[in-house]
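thread: overnight batch results

M.L. [08:02]
morning all. the overnight job finished for the chain we discussed friday. pasting input first so we're all looking at the same thing
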Amino acid sequence: MPFSKQQRKKMAQKAVETRKIREKQRKSSESAIKATGTRKESEDVFKLAKVIGVGANRIIHHNGLPDLIVIKNDGKIAFYEIKPKKGRLNRIMLNNEQKETVKHLLEMGFEVFMVRYEKRRNEYYYDNPESLNPKNLNKYCL
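M.L. [08:03]
and the structure it wrote out:
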């Protein structure tokens, strides 16, 4: 038995919605892959070590914490979050999970810094590290 005009219309609307959802998921996946690649390039340990003022062997990189863990020359540990100067808010600002982690690190007495970068012609240019503290933290968050 053929479908009624109303049934065909509903099926067509559902197909359009499904295509939109799949396209959104595909774009999200592509963005994640692109962001991962950018992160690895922008966190060039050797260049950042020079900006931070320590040897590259004193930097520990670990997922789940700020981008870099640095053992400073005085033996203290500091944390560095690397973010682009320009871009979408969710890329240039700390998300809620990062904010909570930074809060805990600050409460434990660790130094936490934000380093902004700009990419020009496949070269990364870094600003001096900005110190984060409980008073200015919200300025760096979504």
